[in-house]
Design goal:
- With 287 residues, this protein is an alpha/beta fold.
- It is 43% helix and 16% strand.
- It has helices at 11-19, 39-45, 63-68, 70-91, 123-138, 158-168, 185-197, 214-224, 254-260, 267-286, and strands at 2-6, 25-29, 53-56, 94-100, 141-147, 150-151, 173-175, 179-180, 183-184, 202-205, 212-213, 232-234.
- The strands form four sheets. The protein has a six-stranded parallel beta sheet, sandwiched between helices.
- Helix 4 (70-91) packs parallel to helix 5.
- Bound molecules: NADP nicotinamide-adenine-dinucleotide phosphate.
- NADP nicotinamide-adenine-dinucleotide phosphate binds next to helix 1, helix 4 and strand 4.
- Residues 1-275 form the RmlD-like substrate binding domain.
- InterPro entries: dTDP_dehydrorham_reduct (IPR005913), NAD(P)-bd_dom_sf (IPR036291), RmlD-like-bd (IPR029903).
- This is dTDP-4-dehydrorhamnose reductase.
Amino acid sequence: MRILVTGAEGILGRAIREWLASGNTLYLWGRDEVDVRDKDRVLAAAKGIEFDAVVHAAAMTAVDRCETEFDLAMATNRDGTSHVASLARERGATLVYLSTDYVFDGTKEGPYLEDDPPQPINAYGRSKLAGEEIAREVAGKSLTVRTSWVFGEGGANFVDAIAEKLKRGDTPEVVTDQRGSPTYARDLARGIEKLLRLGTTGTVHVTNSGETTWYGLAVEIARDLGSPLQVRETTSDRFTRPAPRPKNSVLSGKRYQALTGESLPRWEDAVRDYLGRRWLAQRGAAA
Ligand SMILES: NC(=O)c1ccc[n+]([C@@H]2O[C@H](COP(=O)([O-])OP(=O)(O)OC[C@H]3O[C@@H](n4cnc5c(N)ncnc54)[C@H](OP(=O)(O)O)[C@@H]3O)[C@@H](O)[C@H]2O)c1
């Protein structure tokens, strides 16, 4: 497949570069090459290249910053998506729009299904939902992939933040009252490729299997790293941040499983794998 990737320097973009390079032709756009807010640039940069799909991973993802810079969040996550969707339509390519568990309000008991009504409770979620709507409206063929709690190389993420804290000897204090499914960018990249090869359109939730809290994830990281430090429990009302987070944002993987005949690996295995790679690589480099 020939795949154009926006946000190529981000966590998902880098995973696509690393894990989907073999068997595909990739065109990688980082922010320096193409700012997706600039429609003319988006259309001009694609002149002379042919692609079957666009994985639109560029986004403003700093959840708290979106609260105070909502205009920028909308310009990036909604208008930028509209520009990329126009390009996809013009070329007859499938647009893969990456969306988030934060389009839900978190009040549901149990995992969210693709058809559950979105009701974002923060600015990031509102801007990403606006992106979903414009992607469907503008692109001829579109696949919305909602994912959650993404970790991997190439950007700020919870797994690295906790690992670095533990490495410094600081005890992390982490909330026990937000549930979700951690997702390794590598597994997400492979999941997207699988859906594209099947010609899937519509909305599909793609996360690692299983669920936990941020606290549970931090405990797992500490265990994997063999840290002697104990992760401390806290709750959202004591650990306040500009953007509220949903209490439950677990996404059901049933549709993905029905479409592909498989589930992504368990989140615990994915975290162990990622930490092993990263830390073994670091130790190797230090030796
Ligand atoms: N990370 C998560 O936990 C998570 C969860 C659910 C859904 N998602 C979605 O998954 C997708 C990929 O996220 P990610 O984890 O790879 O995030 P990421 O690491 O923040 O990558 C996003 C990339 O987009 C770039 N970007 C921002 N504004 C841009 C613009 N105007 N033009 C071009 N590029 C721009 C960023 O560049 P700068 O670094 O220079 O800003 C960054 O390289 C996003 O759509 C995100 O909303 C992520």
